[in-house]
Amino acid sequence: MGGTLVFSKHVPFHRKDRIQMFFPLQTKRNHQEKRNAEMALSPLVYHRLVRPKWMTQKYIHNHINANFDLKNKRILDFGAGTGANCTLCTPEMYHGIEPDHGRVQLASRLYPGYKFSVLQDDVLPVEDRSIDFVMIIAVLHHIATQEITRYVAEFRRILSPEGRVLVIEPSLWEHTPICNWFMQWLDKGDYIRDERGYLELFEDQGFSCQVLKRFKKGLFYNEVYFYAVPEQEKGDH
C-alpha cells in the first residue's frame, strides 16, 4: 500500500516529548497559539480554505467510497467541522457533532436536511448501539490522548454490533523528517501521531484495527486511513 513509498517499522513518534525532541522548532508554536490561529478563521473561510470541494473529494470521499458505502447507514460524524463530509451519507441518517458553534451554524445552512449539533461534553448525544459508522476525519490530532480515551469508550457504547470507526488522520512517517516537521509547523493540531500511536488509541480499549491505506496529501502531508472495530466481550450478542 502507499504507491511507491516504502514503509518500515515505525518509530513511536506519538509521545509529545519525543516529537519535540526530534522537531524542536515545533516549540515555537504551542497548542494554544495554534488553536487561537485556527479559531481566528471564520467558519466560511475555514470551509473554503481547509475543506474545498476538490480536496475533500480527492483525499477523503474517494478513499472512503473505495471501501464503504455509507448511504442508508446510521452515521455519527465526530468533529464534523463545517459539514463537508455529510454528502457521503443519507441526510436523515446522519448526525454531525462539532464543538464550534459557528461551524455548526454554517454547516446547517450549507447542508439543509442534515443534522448538526454542538458537542458540549464527553457524553455523545446518541443512544446505545444506534450507530453503524463513526466517521473521524482529521480530528484526533487536535485532541490529547487522555481526552480521546473518554471518547473511544463512548464510541464503543454507541456502535451497533457490526459498527466501525473510520479514521483519516495526518501521520508521522519514519523516513519523512521534512514532511513531519512541516506538518507540525503548519498544522493547527498539536497531537499528530505516528500510525502506531493512532492505532493504540483504539487497541488499548479493546478495538481491532485495520490500516486500509497510507497516502500523500499534496507534497508534504502524510495520511493514514484505517478502521477500528470493537472486540466482542463476554456476554455481548
Automatic annotation (TrEMBL):
Keyword Translocase included in the entry's annotation: no
Keywords linked to the UniProt accession: Methyltransferase, Transferase
Residue ranges constituting the Methyltransferase type domain according to the UniProt record: 76-166
A single GO molecular function term of this UniProt record: methyltransferase activity
Pfam families: Methyltransf_11
Domain of life according to the entry: Bacteria
A biological process term (GO) from this entry: methylation
Methyltransferase in keyword set: yes
Protein name listed in UniProt: Class I SAM-dependent methyltransferase
Biological source species: Tumebacillus lacus
